[in-house]
Design a protein that fits this description.
The chain has 122 residues and is α+β, with helices and mostly antiparallel strands. It contains five helices and three strands, in the order αβββαααα.
Length: 122
């Protein structure tokens, strides 16, 4: 059902936790499945230096949260905004059709954290 990459990111999630005094925080949820993701950003000179996440949800939700943090670190804010839901799923070598909504949450949470960061700088 799940790819080896999904199982790896679920079993050994990267970047779990919170960032105190984060520069941006984004939270999204899916009421139909109960998944909730919160992403924290640390930004220096417009580059994402650190990303952490806390996710309550299924294995796919945890795996996509882990993957999106790996994909965002080192990117500029604008580059990270270009990360799509499909790109997260593709980086995990795909998700079962019933779990695609989980990958959507990961990118959305990242985008919300970036939005929060930009609003705090305005």
């Amino acid at each position: 059902m799940y790819t080896d990459k999904v199982m790896d990111h679920f079993s050994n999630p990267r970047n779990v936790g919170e960032i105190e005094n984060a520069d941006g925080v984004g939270e999204v949820g899916n009421a139909s499945c109960g998944d909730i993701m919160k992403i924290y950003l640390k930004v220096e000179n417009n580059i994402i230096k650190d990303v952490k996440f806390k996710t309550f949800g299924c294995g796919a939700a945890i795996a996509t949260s882990s993957m999106v943090t790996e994909m965002a670190i080192g990117k500029t804010i604008d580059e990270a905004l270009e990360l799509t839901n499909a790109a997260v799923a593709e980086a995990l070598d795909g998700l079962p059709p019933a779990k695609i909504h989980c990958s959507n949450l990961a990118a959305d949470a990242l985008h919300e954290a970036i939005k929060n960061y930009k609003e705090s700088k305005a």
